[in-house]
Here is the input.
Amino acid sequence: MTGWLAIAGLGPGSDHLVTPEVTAILAEATDVVGYIPYVARVAPRKGLTLHPSDNRVELDRARAALEMAAAGRKVVVVSSGDPGVFAMASAVFEALEGRPDWQALDTRVLPGITAMLAAAAAAGAPLGHDFCCINLSDNLKPWAMIETRLRHAAKADFAMAFYNPRSASRPEGFTKALEVLREECGPDRLITFARAVSTPEEALLTVTLGEATPEMADMRTVVIVGNSATRRVGRFVYSPRSAG
Ligand code: SAH
Here is the structure.
């Protein structure tokens, strides 16, 4: 049996937002590897082995998946959203470094709808002009780098999307991020908290930076800060196509 490896994005939560390409590859798989809640989104069936694992061992998980593919299994590594956005695709390529045998495997990345795009659509069009995207977790990079990027993005008047804004283990980071944003953007800038987008728990809240509190975000929230022209229209928030 010739094995292969697919690294697939399951989208933000709703089954309707899984691409047909990803649904088709899951139907062909013999093994699905990923973080426990993402693997739980794959329906069990005969001939399919599920390998849920803890999120802190991404590189080990990538190596285990590659080993299975090299042994002839048809392996799908699943991430939420898009696998290339703060997710498993980079871990798999890191595992390929120095391994020509693994580099020769049939390996594909299948895109998914990333959280910020689902959140932006639910809110209106806050990312309708230039924007950037920053992971606020300091697990894999120093806080000083996050703060520098935040300040530069704000000074350049990008709209900004923030992943991993706040967790129980590091509640103070997002408090600092809000302070930096208030300094750079002022209190009237719009900020949207989009939680569990496309799931039954979906909740959207748009306030000003002056009104924002750290508790408005958790690990299931993606946060979008508008640029200086971002405004409300009815119940929506949008960034105009033209600026400056
Ligand atoms: N690969 C994923 C991101 C993984 S990082 C993607 O492309 O979406 C995990 C972070 O993504 C969470 O902390 C949160 O900020 C965001 N996120 C994932 N799913 C979400 C959803 N349904 N609603 C809001 N934010 C979500």
Remarks:
- The longest strand covers residues 4-9.
